[in-house]
Design a protein that fits this description.
The chain is 47% helix and 15% strand. With 354 residues, it is of the alpha/beta class. It has two domains: 68 residues, Orthogonal Bundle (Arc Repressor Mutant, subunit A), CATH 1.10.10.10; 199 residues, 3-Layer(aba) Sandwich (Rossmann fold).
Length: 354
């Protein structure tokens, strides 16, 4: 919980538009100073500790086994942009922004903040010019792997960090995403690459007559049991482990693919979508329901344009425009039939078999 704010102590970062252009640029190119300071606080679980009571950097350092002075400097930097608040005497408290770094709150960003600050996600950016010069994925070149998911197989601790972040990002928006589209018309909904099942659980919780099929890698699908049980939908879900490049299970009327296709290039996406088409087995009312961003044209600001750099450097996929999504569906045997706003930056992109 936040502590009552003290007048004059709230962070008030300047409006960048009011600063000289050179200072605006300096703020842009030094963004890592902020993101890595927040990473430290998330990694150490400081928001959870401060939710119990206000504490000094020395107290927090003692509780987490780190050096107090560097920790104070990271806290001070984070507080300067509104993440935490420093009070006289070096006491820190939560702010609304800092509360998003608590572990068990709805929409927690703690695991995402950890993932984006970890070495395996951070270090490839030092090799971004390799990607620009060659078109090859910096992550793969740096770690000597075919792709990030091959790296995960050899580093289960890193995969756990990734899965925790994906779960955190999904749980905060699962219910709203499920409300963005009418799933009640389907007898069975499959979630392809559905992780621990948060989105599918939300869909089934809202539609008691719908059955579910959850599909992901075997090591991932194992983590779904508690999620489905807590939502009281476990008896309506078939869990299946496998590789969506080889095949996806048949039997569903609608196949949801959320935040998966942006990880892959067009040819790989075509393989996944064609496997979905085979699984639909000619059902005239069958649907593929893609939940992804749609990149706007020209200079409009959109998170997808920045996320696209992450895909380029670390994963090898890309964010796509509406035209590109339509073309991808067309080539895979579907046609684009609807585009529906969902939880930003995502949209519901609906396709039907041609």
């Amino acid at each position: 919980m936040t502590t009552e704010t003290t007048p004059g102590l709230l962070a008030a970062p300047p409006d960048p538009a009011q600063l000289p252009e050179s200072v605006q640029m300096l703020l842009l190119v030094t963004g890592k100073w902020v993101s890595q300071s927040i990473y430290v606080t998330a990694k150490l679980g400081l928001a959870d500790l401060l939710a119990k009571e206000p504490q000094t950097a020395e107290q927090l350092a003692a509780a987490t086994g780190v050096a107090p002075t560097p920790l104070y400097r990271c806290l001070r930097a984070a507080a300067s942009v509104g993440v935490f608040q420093e009070h006289p005497g070096g006491i820190f408290t939560l702010t609304p922004l800092a509360e998003t770094l608590m572990t068990d709150v709805a929409g927690s960003m703690r695991h995402a903040a950890i993932m984006f600050g970890e070495d395996f996600m951070w270090r490839p950016y030092g090799h971004i010019m390799h990607t620009v010069r060659t078109g090859q994925v910096a992550f793969n070149e740096l770690f000597g792997v075919r792709d990030m998911f091959e790296y995960f197989k050899a580093h289960p601790d890193v995969e756990a960090v990734f899965n925790d972040a994906m779960t955190g990002l999904t749980t905060g928006s699962a219910a709203e995403t499920a409300e963005s589209y009418d799933f009640s018309r389907f007898g069975c909904v499959a979630d392809i690459g559905g992780g621990h099942g948060y989105l599918l659980a939300s869909i089934l919780a809202q539609h008691p007559k719908v059955q579910g099929l959850l599909f992901d890698r075997p090591g991932v699908i194992e983590g779904a049991e508690n999620v489905l049980a807590e939502a009281r939908v476990e008896e309506r879900v078939i869990r299946s482990g496998g590789d969506f490049f080889e095949a996806v299970p048949a039997g569903a009327d609608a196949y949801v693919i959320k935040s998966v296709l942006h990880d892959w290039d067009d040819e790989q996406c075509l393989q996944i979508l064609r496997n979905v088409l085979v699984a639909l087995d000619g059902k005239p009312d069958g649907r593929v329901i893609i939940v992804e961003s749609i990149v706007p044209e020209l200079n409009e600001w959109d998170f997808s344009k920045l996320m696209d750099i992450e895909m380029m450097v670390n994963v090898g996929g890309r964010e796509r425009t509406r035209t590109e999504w339509a073309a991808l569906l067309e080539r895979s045997g579907f046609q684009l039939t609807d585009v529906i706003p969902s939880v930003p930056p995502n949209w519901i992109i609906e396709g039907t078999p041609r």
